[in-house]
Amino acid sequence: MEQNKSDEIDLLQVIKAIKKILKKWLFLIFEALNFIKAKWIIILILIIAGFSYGYYKEYSQIQEKNVKILLRINYNAVDYVYTSIELLDKKVRENDYLFLNKIGLKPNLLAKLKLDPVIKINEIVDQFDANNRNLDIVLKNIEFEEEDEEMKLHQTFTSAYKEHILVITTKGDSLDIVNLVMNYLNNTPLTKELKNIGILNLKSNLESNKKTLSQIDKILDSYSENQSLPSPLEQMFVVDKNFSIHTLIEKKMELMKKVTQQEQDLIYGKDVVVYINQPELIFAEKGMLSNKKFFYPIGLVFMFLILAYFRYTYFRLKRIAYQEIS
Question: If 0-12 CB within 10 Å is exposed, 13-18 middle and 19+ buried, where does residue 101 land?
Answer without folding.
Answer: exposed
